[in-house]
Design a protein that fits this description.
Low-confidence stretches: 203-216
CATH superfamily of the largest domain: P-loop containing nucleotide triphosphate hydrolases
Strand order of the largest sheet: 10-9-8-11-15-14
Structural class: alpha/beta
Number of helices: 7
CATH class of the largest domain: Alpha Beta
CATH topology of the largest domain: Rossmann fold
Number of domains: 3
Helix content: 10-25%
């Protein structure tokens, strides 16, 4: 766009966005009604967005965002408070689901939801087990092995002991990764351990509720040493899907794919239809029963809460 410069959004607070452009940090607002097309979104601009900025002639470190470039990938969720889809990250390569064996407890169904959100948005899911110094239950170990057997990247680390961090950094180098997880799993601790001096706030896990407190208040793109680009997101307790139809969810369950084409009726929602090959595979043990239960809960939630972005 003539008269503009290209920049990358690092974060936004209220209506002011910090944009990296021409090697400098600019404070920008949205120009007029240019972005009205995104009204249905909780946030029209997200970390990782590439934007066109009109610099302020009197203040070169300020400007107006005139255009948001088409996104290569997007990771989003349904924001209950705003009753609209919320974009957590734009143009990221990896969606890293940070989890833990305990404090807070291991939740494979949260991982399943993030895998669907990542797959739907064009990102590659990664399962990252922090607090690997804590005991891992047999069920959690089995589920992590199941994700690995399905072809998902699974990595373990300990922010406290420094275990697995060098390998994690090597995995992320040259890519943009968005970190997502429940409050208390240690996202900020991992980043602080990777980059001493970063100084992200770290919260404690509630002994009463066995869950963490929010220490990151907004998503932000961190441009770190060694070519690492990480979008840190606030901890979430629930992850409701946005921009995914119930009929599409099965395509994002990798273990369903070998069986879905064999269902007697097409398209099949795999929700009790006669001759469903996916359900038969669950009953025979070829598909993990809890994975199917996770799938069933997702489609039920989407059917009960039809909303903009989900039909």
């Amino acid at each position: 766009m003539q008269g503009t410069i290209s920049g990358e959004v690092l974060y936004g607070i209220n209506t002011i966005y910090s944009v990296q452009a021409d090697g400098a940090l600019m404070q920008c607002r949205i120009k007029g009604k240019v972005l009205r097309e995104a009204e249905r979104s909780y946030n029209p601009i997200a970390p990782g967005d590439v934007v066109e900025v009109i610099p302020d002639t009197l203040s070169p470190r300020e400007g107006l965002i005139a255009e948001v470039r088409a996104r290569r990938t997007v990771l989003s969720r349904w924001n209950k408070k705003g009753r609209a889809p919320q974009v957590l990250a734009a143009n990221a390569d990896l969606a890293v689901c940070v989890t833990s064996p305990a404090s807070p407890p291991f939740r494979p169904r949260f991982i399943d939801r993030l895998i669907v959100a990542a797959s739907a948005g064009g990102l590659r899911p990664v399962v990252l087990l922090n607090k690997a110094d804590l005991p891992l239950s047999a069920d959690a170990e089995e589920r992590l092995g199941h994700y690995a057997r399905m072809g998902y990247t699974v990595h373990s680390c300990s922010a406290v002991r420094g275990q697995g961090l060098e390998e994690l950094a090597q995995m992320l180098r040259g890519l943009t990764a968005v970190f997502v997880g429940q409050s208390g799993v240690g996202k900020s601790s991992i980043l602080n351990s990777l980059f001493p001096g970063l100084g992200l706030r770290v919260g404690n896990v509630s002994a009463k509720h066995n869950r963490g407190s929010h220490t990151t208040n907004f998503s932000s793109l961190l441009l770190l040493e060694g070519g690492l680009r990480i979008i840190d997101t606030p901890g979430v307790r629930e992850l409701e899907l946005a921009d995914v139809l119930p009929e599409e969810v099965g395509y994002h369950f990798r273990d369903f794919v070998p069986f879905a084409g064999e269902c007697e009726f097409q398209p099949c929602l795999h929700a009790g239809e006669p001759g469903c090959a996916v359900l038969a595979a669950v009953e025979s043990g070829q598909i993990h029963a809890d994975r199917y239960e996770s799938y069933r809960r997702i489609i039920q939630e989407l059917q009960e809460n039809r909303r903009p972005g989900n039909g």
